[in-house]
Design brief:
With 289 residues, the protein is an alpha+beta fold. Among the domains are: 1-56, Transcription Regulation, Sacy, Chain A (Roll), CATH 2.30.24.10; 175-281, PTS-regulatory domain, PRD, CATH 1.10.1790.10. Helix content is 61%, strand content 9%. It has eleven helices and five strands. It has helices at residues 56-65, 71-88, 96-112, 122-128, 130-147, 154-168, 176-193, 202-220, 228-237, 239-256, 263-288, and strands at 3-11, 14-19, 23-28, 41-43, 51-53. A five-stranded antiparallel β-sheet has the order 4-1-2-3-5. Helix 2 (71-88) packs antiparallel against helix 5, helix 4 (122-128) crosses helix 6 and helix 9 (228-237) runs parallel beside helix 11. The termini are far apart.
Length: 289
Amino acid sequence: MSSITVAKVLNNNVIIAQHPQYAEVVVIGKGIGFNRKVRDLINLSSVEKMFILRNQEEQEQYKQLVPQVDEKLIEVVQEIVLHILQSSRQPLNEHIHIALTDHISFAIRRNEQNIAIHNPFLYETKEIYPEEYSLAEYAVGRINEAMGVRLPPDEIGFVALHIVSALSNRHISEVKEHSLLIGDLVNLVEDHLEYHIPRDSLDYSRLVTHLRFVLERLRRGETVRETSSLDGLMKREYPEMYMLAWKLTKVIEKRVRIPVYAAEVSYLTIHLQRLAQKKEDEADMQQQD
């Protein structure tokens, strides 16, 4: 019988372990870490509802994410992922563990701060991906129930896109054209900010995920409703990042030969401002040291 050896317990639902086939892995499962100690053996055949993150970059990103989120959220997300697997009967890209946990955690924080982000792709998402949208409705409903929050319906569309991404397995490493373009766009961002984004960081994962969704929408010919109020706010509050976002969309247009809707600029600005703030925070910490 194959077994894994506990290397570190991150919380009751996540452990780092040595796997006989995949070396170090992140193992996620309800109660998997409860009362476990380093060097404990866990028989793989005796563990139910377990997900193993084998990709090294995915592991590093998830290790960074776990200490930042509520342990209950980790448990609920795994319940949701299992529901998606059972309902779709299709394999899922393991990145969904990171993407979904990170997105929902951020959505809950925004909701607590009464910061509403309108989803201009909500109706299109429901129309184009009805099955994934239905799964997202379940996910958001389960999150609201388990975490005692009331995430808005807009979040259903965002979660549905994460599910689409995981089910279609359209990872940037598997789509060469998009991979090259995304790499060039990230380099442009780094050059402008004079800031290197660590490739195993959540910041990199967030930016790449957003760019992937932009390209996916273009590939599918999805229309994007104009959001003049958000556009005006972004242009006024974050003019430098807004201009950078505009330049990036022009690069995308030139490379894929498809017009990019102006609304994409506003949503890209939000992600770029987050990166710019991260750079400032790190600079402040270095000065304090």
